[in-house]
Amino acid sequence: VLGMHRSGTSAITRGLQVMGIDLGNNLMPAMEGVNDKGFWEDLDINALNNELLSSLGSDWHHVAPIKSSDIATLLKSCYFTRAVELLRQKVDKDTIFGFKDPRVAKLLPFWKEVFTYCQVDTRCILVIRHPLSVTKSLNKRDGFDAEKSYLLWLGHVIESLSGSMGLQRVLVD
Fold first, then answer.
1. Side by side, which strands form the sheet with 2-3?
2. Which residues on neighbouring strands pair with residue 2, listed in sequence order?
3. DSSP letters for 53-84
4. CA torsion angle 165 170 172 173 (round to 10)
5. Are 7 and 139 in contact (CB under 8 A)?
6. Alpha-carbon distance 111 to 117, whole Å?
7. How far is residue 170's CA from residue 112's CA, in Å, rounded to a whole number?
8. Under a CB-based contact definition with an 8 Å cutoff, are residues 102 and 50 in contact?
9. Nearest to 70 by CA among 81, 54, 83
């Protein structure tokens, strides 16, 4: 599930779980006043994504996109092997596994290489919410100003759309 933070990715991912999609057994707990019903993010995947971004001097709230040279660096590092091992631990041949972490929008070229290497059938749900709603939510949760929030929204949307080209995908508004 791809999308910007505060766009409804948690609600969509929870819906997938209700329909039988395996989200893993190490989910991020709910946070009162932020995501009262849960984030539906696998903590192991989330931790690796945070580490990947940090190794590049980035973070989920940095507006600068991740460069293709940065992805190449990640693919040549131990991170690729770690991501492959993590995905293999999560994927069970008897179930359909899914995950969401808004950081993946920035890191999708890396993850696509992992999916290809692991020979998993990859499909994407792109979640779009009006940028004004996202901006208001980010201001409330993180204190971000509108300009930064709009740029973050635009970056995540563009990276989700361009990064998922060639994959089966559906857009949910």
1. 2-3, 123-127, 168-172
2. 126
3. HHHTT--TT--SPPPHHHHHHHHHSHHHHHHH
4. 50
5. no
6. 10
7. 17
8. no
9. 54
**Rounded average pLDDT over 11-39:** 92
Q: What is the pTM of this model?
A: 0.93
Nearest-Å Rg of the Cα atoms of the chain is: 15
Token pair of 10, please?
């948690």
Cβ–Cβ < 8 Å for 89, 13: no
What's the one-letter identity of residue 123?
A: R
| pLDDT 10s digits, 37-88 | 989 999 999 999 999 999 999 999 999 999 999 999 999 999 999 999 999 9
pLDDT-based confidence at 103, cuts 50/70/90?
A: very high
